Amino acid sequence: MYGLMQDHPLLISSLIRHAAANHGGREVVSRLVDGSIHRTNYATIELRARRLAHALTSRGIRLGDRIATLAWNTHRHVECFYGVSGMGAVLHTVNPRLFHEQIEYIIRHAEDRILFFDADLLPIVESIAPQIGCVEHFVVLCERAQVPKSELLQLAAYEDWIAAAGEDYAWPQFDERTASSLCYTSGTTGNPKGVLYSHRSTLIHALAASQRDGFALSSLDSVMPIAPLFHANGWSLPYACPMVGAKMVLPGNRMDAASLYELISGERVSFSVGVPTIWTMLLAYTGEKGLQLDALERCLVAGTALPPAVQKALKDLHGVTAIHAWGMTETSPIGTLSTPTPEVLALPEDQREAELLKQGRVPYGAEIQVRDAEGRVAPKDGQTFGPLWIRGPWIASGYFKGEGGKVLDADGWFPTGDVATWDELGFMKITDRTKDVIKSGGEWISSIDVENAAMSHPKVALAAAVAAFHPKWDERPVLVIVPKDGQELSRDELLEFLAPKMAKWWLPDDVVFVREMPMTATGKILKAKLREQYWHRLE
Ligand code: ADP
Predict the structure, then answer these.
(1) Does the active-site annotation cover 520?
(2) Which residue in 79, 201, 396, 479 has the most C-beta neighbors within 10 A?
(3) Is residue 413 part of a domain?
(4) CB of 537 closer than 6 A to ligand 1?
């Protein structure tokens, strides 16, 4: 017997319809690529997204067609999230920081029919244009007068498309399992692979993410996604903010501390998300200028491990609670969040802090499992490391066009490629990516723990622990360090500092000082490259 309740499909258009109807006047503030500040609201965004959907329909775009964006965080990009997915097409958000060959590859692989892009990214578009024959229209996210000159391409202005399209467009209804957006993993090895989200997965994920034990979002918040919208759905914020009616503050392409600070302070930002390096940069800036992170109450930190020193400085100096989270493109992206439970709050202070520094626990809907070397479920002892698996309604079941073959195990678990421990309170801690693990004499050393210990030294800006070949132990850790500007630090000074902080056999065999680290397009240290570089260091 079926229940007698209404059956409304969970569609992305319903979010912006809700925001327009119930929070229509709530502001969406953007820094445009020319540096100017633009103000709009949800009612206007919904109207313009409908016009965009109309414009796409009249150009022959149909359910399931892929439409690419190469764009920064602005209101026009948010409109694309709704105009494209809302009409049933698939929004493919492309990361402009990828190598040009990768951008070209993923646009061809996705067979994108239209490319919307920010004016400052024209050089990238022109350089790959001859290879992306699938793209029928190149549309610049600006007014006609701001469209840059191109010898090579016929460029349209986004504002012309919006102005010419009528308002008499109603959001269509279709199956909630329809594909809504596409995001490629950056593919540090091999070609990038496409993660294809659905309307249903996106909505359930946004509901889970915005809960009190998650981002704790409400209409009282002013939210700044510093993490780019092209990185794993902007960590759900383009969906979760309209869902609750929170104000959005979009920083465009200006990621320097002064520009970010100006918006955080001027727009009374209460919640923000970003990778640890963003917070390190903002802490350095506010420290130097003697500024406070004003209205900011909490921030979500993910992408790489949150260094304890960053969490502490945010709390002690600015009263900001940093919530550590873990996830990946394949998990929409939220997998776990480190928010307290009564059991955690009852712990003595040092244990409580250590617990909240872990990557955390799953919200309802996701399930995780840590397995041991034999593939059995690992004990919840906070000690045993093993591969981390995840499953749930917002976790990928495979990659676009079947790349990478079958990925789930027989019980539907997704292998994350991360190594973790978990404890009896349900808190998970990432110790490594599988490929970054350091295996010394058959035992695993957590490179993240070694890095965090090194990062707590006041003269260290960045740290990476990588495996080097060792004739007796197979592998031993080598620590690669970028000192803070103008600071001198010796190998022995650092090793002495680390010695009381870890088991003796975890202590790195060598320390290398460098000026900069090789980074991935998503702002992570390219460990594979460091490992290759220092593999023979100890021979
Ligand atoms: P990319 O590899 O392209 O950066 P993802 O954003 O999907 O793409 O990266 C996900 C990976 O980032 C995870 O598998 C994990 O290794 C790492 N990661 C994410 N959050 C954390 C965290 N809080 N601590 C440690 N590692 C993290």
Answers:
(1) no
(2) 79
(3) no
(4) no
